[in-house]
Amino acid sequence: MYDVLYARQSIEKKDSISVESQLEYCRYETHGEACIEYTDKGFSGKDTNRPGFEKMMNDIRTGKIKRVIVYKLDRISRSILDFANMMEIFQKYHVEFVSSTEKFDTSTPIGRAMLNICIVFAQLERETIQKRVTDAYYARCKRGFYMGGRVPYGYCLRNTVIDNVRTSMYEEVPEESEQLKLIYSMYADTGNSLGDIVRYLNEHQIKNLRGANWNTARISEMLRNPVYVEADIDVYQFFQSQGANIYNPASDFTGYNACYLYKGTASTTRKQCDLSDKEIVLAPHKGFIPSKTWLACRIRCLNNRQSTKTCKPKNSWLVGKVKCGNCGYALTIRKAKTKWGRYFVCSQSGKHGNCKGAGCTIYADVLEEYMLGAIKERLLEFQKLSCVTDTGEAQKNMTKKIRLTQIEEEINELLSKVSGASNVLIKYIDEKVSVLDTERKALQEEIITANVTDTAGRLKQITNHVNTWETLSFEDRQAVVDTLIKVIQIADGNIEITWNI
Asked: Range(s) for CATH 3.40.50.1390 in the chain?
């Protein structure tokens, strides 16, 4: 039976002890007797998935080893559970354990107790380091630093300096960005599917300049990525409505910078369509896809996830737009063997959810009929409005939207302070909210009027679609709703519609 020397080093750093130095310390404990050496370079101690360690444990089970010697306890394990399992095997095969620098004697109760205490602190150290690295990563993310990874199609890397720190940023590659502009413009047209785009690119011999093949999964990933968008206030409001955590204030969304999307420290979902608790940060580089085109594609991607095209009869062209007014989550379609057939129910209600529902029975056919009437009335309102053109109207309208978003955030912040406030403070809050609400209503009217010029052509086309509603396809009906409506909230019999126009 032999003594065994085990050494591990995760990464080579100036302040870390090398595998060779660890083994030299361990050899002193053998007093010149023959020994076997096992090493793992480039492996973390957070688990036991290490080739050298696994080979050593296999040799222990064959009865070849009488003692395991390490330089320090955390070289063999930083996990309490893994260490306990390892020691159980050691005891089963009568193997002694020695830490050359910490002088543990596992043959005594006090030695085993001290060993367990040390492994607790070893795990604490590992978790503290892990938390510190994670915090540092997200701190750098929020400052717009390049964090590595694959460079998105359409960009290359160039060196830059942000806050006196050398880093990298994306720079547009014209040949690739032109292809992306084509893909976005095609998908913004609801008549084209992802498959249609792939076929068009292949038929016209438009090659991926990085040598990969075009496929629907790759194109779908590009269409969801905010790294391409000219992020303005509409993009800010979209991410805000989806529950994302936005690091930059609304005033920074001027339509120049693109965005980075991070998973975030609080996010637990891996679904690409779910943006709740994701982190949105303005990137230092310029986007090249207009916000309207990007949003049209992004919203269409969301709707594709939320509806099942292979089972259209049980779905509704309102799916993805209807939310519960009590909890804010989506209302989904359920099918029942009744004369109504389809119902909208809160996705968070029932035995697995915390919401009690929208407070009333929502028949899908009734809601669809009501919304079709509401859409017709909305379009009639716009037909009566006059249009005024102005070369700087778009920029003015964007400024108004930014201010409108700031007002809504100020009102929400004031209302959050009402609970437990004194009468004097409540009176001040009420007066302040009243002033802000007056400004908000005035801005909303100005924005609606300004939008008439921008959307006149589309509204005329939409009006024609609405007049021939019964002949429209399921996808075309969804496209009309996407253009006109931002969200429909239902609670206790009340329907609140937030329009895009």
From this structure: 2-141
Q: Which of the listed CATH numbers 3.40.50.720, 1.10.10.10, 3.40.640.10, 3.40.50.1390 matches domain 2-141?
A: 3.40.50.1390
- Residue 220 sits at the vertex; the CA angle it makes with 216 and 225, to the nearest 5 degrees, is 155
Please report which helix (H) or strand (E) contains residue 133, including its range. helix 109-142
For residue 380 the two structure tokens come to 């009639």
**pLDDT reading at 156 higher than 60:** yes
For the CA atoms of 164, 166, 172, 176, the dihedral, rounded to the nearest 10 degrees, stands at -160
d(CA 497, CA 371): 9
- H or E stretch covering 130: helix 109-142
Is the pLDDT at 202 greater than 50, yes or no?
A: yes
User: What is the C-alpha end-to-end distance of the chain, expressed in Å?
Assistant: 82
Please tell me the predicted confidence (pLDDT) of residue 178: 93
Q: Between residues 135 and 25, which one has the greater pLDDT?
A: 25
pLDDT band at 109 (very low <50, low <70, confident <90, very high): confident
| Long-range pairs for 370-373: beta carbons < 8 A, 24 or more residues apart | 370/495, 371/318, 371/481, 371/485, 371/488, 371/497, 372/466, 372/469
* 397-436 confidence digits (pLDDT tens): 767 777 888 888 888 888 888 777 788 888 888 888 888 8
Query: Which amino acid, residue 458?
Result: R
Which pLDDT score, from 0 to 100, does residue 84 have? 74
DSSP 6-59: EEEESS--TTS--HHHHHHHHHGGGTT--EEEEEEES--TTSS--HHHHHHHHH
How many Å apart are CA 261 and CA 235, to the nearest integer? 13
